[in-house]
Design a protein that fits this description.
Elements lengths: L8 E5 L4 E4 L4 E3 L3 E3 L3 E3 L7 H4 E2 L4 H13 L5 E5 L3 H13 L4 E5 L10 H14 L2 E3 L4 E4 L3 E4 L4 E3 L2 E4 L3 E3 L16 E2 L12 E3 L4 E2 L12 H20 L12 E5 L5 E5 L14 H19 L25
Parallel strand pairs: 4-16, 6-13, 7-8, 7-13, 8-9, 15-17
Antiparallel strand pairs: 1-2, 2-3, 5-14, 10-11, 11-12, 18-19
Length: 324
Amino acid sequence: MPRLRVGRVVSLDVDRKTVALADGDELPYDTLVYALGSARDDHGVPGVREHAEEVASRDGALRLRDRLRALAPGGRVVVVGGGLTGIEAATEIAESFPHLDVASAVRGGLGDWLSPAGRRHLRGTFERLGITVHERTAVVSVGATEVRTEAGTDLAADVTVWAGGFAVHPIAAATSLAVTDRGQILVDETMRSVSHPDVYAVGDAALAHGPVGNSLRMSCASGMPMAWQAADSLVARLTGGRLPHTPLGYVHQCISLGRRDGLIQLVTTDDRARSFAPGGRLAARYKELVCAGAAFMVAHPVPYPARRRHVRTGSRVEAAQARA
């Protein structure tokens, strides 16, 4: 019978095929699905953990909201990071707290991966919201009231929001699993570990490849199809069915620019920007629909019709959801 065990994972032994929990128990497995996700990556920059807020967790987002609400008019907010998370955080803060002075520190150019149309709309939105952009600005430290840049200048900050990327949990890297230099588990097209065939990895914790060999980026647009692929592959191998051969590719990047503006950047299957990038209120509503739909599906799983198939090998498979 299936069992659900909720616990905190502290280590993994892929040679003994056990998962160790914080309470001292060990869970044996025949097949393991590793989906521990990611957290913010401070890149070793001094002061980030002590002084910067983050939006990579619910607790972090709520703490940031409270700090922003406590700032007086003219309070200075610096968002570090020019990726999708940094862009969405800066525009959301600027729109929700128009009395604050919001700035964005970007290592490269603002939205430099977007199409020309996408960049124009993005820059227009930043200007409309009054966000100051510091392009080609690398941050080397974060203090209580300032952000120090590689050029030696300080950006005044009453609140610093760190959106400099994501890092995976170190549990996988501490095992004999084949991982990248970032600690992501290397998987094949079925999401199975290239070094340990009894381990599947999905989401940010794994490095999978798209239809032309491109690495899939950390995002829900990658994680959900990876999970589907792993589930179908696992069932196929247990029952003697046909393995899935669906290439994992992209269609668009949906970017929120506050609650009333957005940008839909169409992309190729390997995530390169196409010329078409509609923006505005309709794009914002579309992104809202995508997010609301994903949240509803998590809270209300849809019982899709399925054909019962007998396990071919008779091996035991246990499912457990744990958080690191």
